[in-house]
Amino acid sequence: MKKFRKVLDGLTTSSPVNPGGSPACGSAAGTPSTAPTPRELEIQETLMSEHFQICKTVRHGVPYQPTALAFDPVQKILATGSRSGGVRLLGRPGVDCHCQHESGAAVLQLQFLINEVPNTHTSHVLHMCRVCVITFCHLPFQSKWLYVGTERGNTHIVNIESFILSGYVIMWNKAIELSTKTHPGPVVHLSDSPKDEGKLLIGFESGTIVMWDLRAKRTDFRIHYDEAIHSVSWHHEGRQFMCSHSDGSLSMWNLRNTAKPFQVTFPHGKTQRDGRKESCKPILKVEYKTSRNR
C-alpha cells in the first residue's frame, strides 16, 4: 500500500495541472511557474450518499418469519405468507411471484380459490376489514360461499364470485349460551361437517366449540374446554374431530357424546409422579389423517 501511494505521489507531482486544465508552463519565456499545492490537485467527488440505495436483486427460499402456508393441488402452486406481510408463490421452474401488504400486516392465513377467478369488486370486503380484524377463513370444496371469522367472535359469509357480503351473520352471543355473558374470544376455526355441508363447526379461542345449523339458524351442540383452542381437524368420516390446545394437549371428541372428550393426549409431555402429563408448549396446528392401518 505504501509503494502504491508513492507511485501516485510521483504521478501527481510529475505532471501538475493548472486551473485551466493544460500542463503548467512558464508564465513568460524563461520564467518557470510555481507548482500547485496538494489541495489544488485534489479531485472533486460528485457522488453523494443520496445517490446510493439498497434494493433486492435476488430472493431465495422461504420468506423470513413464515406465518401461513397453502397449496393448490390443481396448479401445483405453493403459497407462503410472512409476519411482515409478504406473500410468495412458487410453482414449476420459472413460476415465482412475490407481493407485499402496503401496511405490513402479518399474513395469518392463505386460501386458494381452486379453478376460480374472483372479480375485482372488493369494496364490501374491504369495508368489513376496516371495521374488524379477520382471524380465520374457510372455503368449502366447490362452494361459492366463503366463511369469515373475526376477532369479535362473529362469522360472516362472502360470495367469492362478487365478493359481496351476504346478510347472513352468525353472532357470537347467539352461537353460545344466552346466559353466558363472557365473550368467547376470536374465531380460530371454521369448517363444514364432512357428513353435512349445512352444519358449520365454529371454534373460539377461549375453548368453546359450536356446531351451527346453517338452515335452521341455531346451535346443535356446544362444547366447553378448559384450555384455549388453536386448531381443529375433522376425521374424514365426519363422526369425530380433534382439537389442539395451548397446554400442548390434543382432545378428541365424538358427536354421539359431546359432554367430554373421549381421549386427551400430550404427545410431547412426560408423565409425572402422580400419573398426569406435564403441560407443554401450544400445538398451533393439527391435521387428522388416517391410513390403511388406522
Report on the structure:
The protein is mainly β and 294 residues long. The chain has a domain at 128-289: 7 Propeller (Methylamine Dehydrogenase, Chain H). Helices cover 9% and strands 31% of the residues. The protein contains three helices and 16 strands. It has helices at residues 2-14, 123-131, 172-175; strands at residues 66-72, 77-82, 86-90, 96-100, 134-138, 145-150, 155-159, 164-170, 187-192, 199-204, 208-213, 218-224, 229-234, 240-245, 250-254, 263-265. A four-stranded antiparallel sheet has the order 1-2-3-4, with no helix packed on it. A four-stranded antiparallel sheet has the order 5-6-7-8. A four-stranded antiparallel sheet has the order 9-10-11-12, with no helix packed on it. A hairpin with a 3-residue loop joins strand 2 and strand 3. InterPro entries: WD40/YVTN_repeat-like_dom_sf, WD40_repeat_dom_sf, WD40_rpt. Belongs to the WD repeat L(2)GL family.
In which range does the helix fraction lie?
under 10%
| Subunit organisation of the chains | single chain
CATH class of the domain at 128-289: Mainly Beta
Strand order of the largest sheet: 1-2-3-4
* N→C terminal distance: 73 Å
| Beta strand count | 16
Q: Architecture of the domain at 128-289, according to CATH?
A: 7 Propeller
Quick one: CATH superfamily of the domain at 128-289? YVTN repeat-like/Quinoprotein amine dehydrogenase
What are the segments in which pLDDT stays under 50 over at least 5 consecutive residues? 19-28
Strand content bin: 25-35%
* Biggest pleated sheet: 4 strands, antiparallel
List the helices and strands in order.
HEEEEHEEEEHEEEEEEEE
Mean pLDDT: 81
CATH fold assignment of the domain at 128-289? Methylamine Dehydrogenase, Chain H
Q: How many H/I helical runs?
A: 3
Class from secondary-structure proportions: mainly beta
Q: From the alpha carbons, calculate the radius of gyration and give it in angstroms.
A: 33 Å
